Amino acid sequence: MKIITLDEKAFDKFASTHKYRNYYQTSAYGRTKKSNGSNIHYIGIIDDYNNILGASLLLYKEVFMNYKIAYAPRGFLIDYTNVNNLTEFTNRLKKLLGKQGYMLIKIDPFIPINIRNNKGKIININNESNIILANLKAAGYEYLGANLFFENQKPRFEAIVTLNHDIKEIYQSFDKKVRQKIKKAIRNGIEIYKGNIEEINLFYELIKKKYNKPINYYTDLYNNFTNNIDLYFAKLNTETFVVTSRMQYEKEIETNNELAIKIQTTTNNNSKKKLINEKMESDKLVNTYKKNLVWATKLLKENPQGLIVGTALNLCYDNVCYLIIEGFNQDFKSLNPNYLIKWKMINDYKNRNFKYIDLNAVSGEFTKITKYTGLNEMKLGFNSLVTEYIGEFDLVISPLPYNLYKNLNKDKEKKK
């Protein structure tokens, strides 16, 4: 066994057919990271006959006294079930990187260990996962644990919407609240369309506060993955919004007047109390709908051509759609643009015969209330399955400088 450097073409050829292939382990992703400040390297593992047994994109940076840390995004493309090859490769990699000034390499393999339903219950188990975990530990990797939240470089839990049923069945499988929000978005004039690279600034304005990434990162991602990026926008038709708001207001005024008449003509005390309570709720709705109508009228005056209120960027790889990032104007949260965008995505990728849509991260806590409960409810409300990945591992190459680096970082965090 020998570790060599691969060029982009050889790397992509091997990576594109591997069992654990993923878009992080592509030259397109490597170029994106390189143009945004990361150092990159493609390694290959060959046998005595020059057959490639494994490969990986490595991202690396200098962090401490000229020492470097490397990261293989979503892990090496190797057979983790073969403990002998894994151990030999690991030992050779440690020796090679040790000579080059590395003190640590981090991996988070693209290996699902469980499939859960949208309640968090395990419905499918990867029988190889325990073998792989034991093999990694035996080869010297430190397991960082089965964490439930977002402590890792990549999420351990992701929401998956499968597309193997009729579109009507898919829609009916959604949580009732999700269907209501989709209908409300349509009723209030939210319209979804696909944009292009010329509208990247519109997209960036809606997502720039979510992650510390410059606009160039998304431009480079778009260009490097060529025809495999889809950019969605939610646009509010302000004219429709006014019409809907006026209809809601006028309908509730009519209901309110009817309740007032019934209260005056009803003699039964219990019935009257019930009607008074209904009238009070109606009063609140009248006030709310009146404010909405004033707001909608103002929006139409200021934005007669409509207004962009939400967005999402998807990456298509291996017949799967990956939701990379989404965002919306918080002022229009009540109009649910993010729900309608997802419904549009589901329709589009179903028509393109995709296997599933990956809605990205959710937390692994399905029973207790946490700050991520709302995130889970939104994504899992689409009757999503949950893929649980194996997690993150560290391979310490040079213990002395790494321990010193860790201790210094701990001190900095304490001071913060």
The parts where pLDDT drops under 50 for at least 5 residues are none
User: How confident overall, as mean pLDDT?
Assistant: 95
Distance between the termini: 46 Å
Backbone shape: elongated
DSSP strand tally: 16
CATH class categorisation of the largest domain? Alpha Beta
- What do we call the CATH topology of the largest domain? Aminopeptidase
Helical run tally: 13
Give the class from helix and strand content and strand pairing: alpha+beta
Which series of helices and strands comes N to C? EHHEEEHEEEHEEHHEHHEHHEEHEHEEH
Across the major sheet, the strand order is 7-6-15-9-14-13-12-11-10
Summarize the main sheet. 9 strands, mixed
CATH architecture of the largest domain: 3-Layer(aba) Sandwich
The fourth-level CATH homologous superfamily of the largest domain is Gcn5-related N-acetyltransferase (GNAT)
Strand composition percent? 15-25%
Q: Summarize the amount of helix as a percent range.
A: 40-55%
Count of spatially separate domains? 3
| Rg computed from alpha carbons, rounded to a whole number of angstroms | 27 Å
Any key phrases for this structure?
single chain, 416 residues, alpha+beta, Aminopeptidase, seven-stranded mixed sheet
Would you write up a description of this structure?
By secondary structure, the protein is an alpha+beta fold. It folds into three domains: 2-108 and 392-415, Aminopeptidase (3-Layer(aba) Sandwich), CATH 3.40.630; 165-237 and 306-354, Aminopeptidase (3-Layer(aba) Sandwich); 239-302. It has helices at 8-15, 27-34, 83-99, 129-138, 167-172, 176-187, 200-207, 215-224, 238-265, 269-302, 337-351, 373-380, 399-415; strands at 2-5, 39-46, 52-64, 67-72, 102-107, 112-116, 122-125, 142-143, 157-162, 190-195, 229-236, 307-317, 320-328, 356-361, 385-389, 393-396. The chain has a nine-stranded mixed beta sheet, sandwiched between helices. The protein has a seven-stranded mixed beta sheet with strand order 1-2-3-4-5-16-8, sandwiched between helices. Helix 3 links the parallel strand 4 and strand 5 (102-107). Helix 9 (238-265) runs antiparallel to helix 10 (269-302). The protein is elongated and about 95 Å long. The two termini are 46 Å apart. The mean pLDDT is 95.
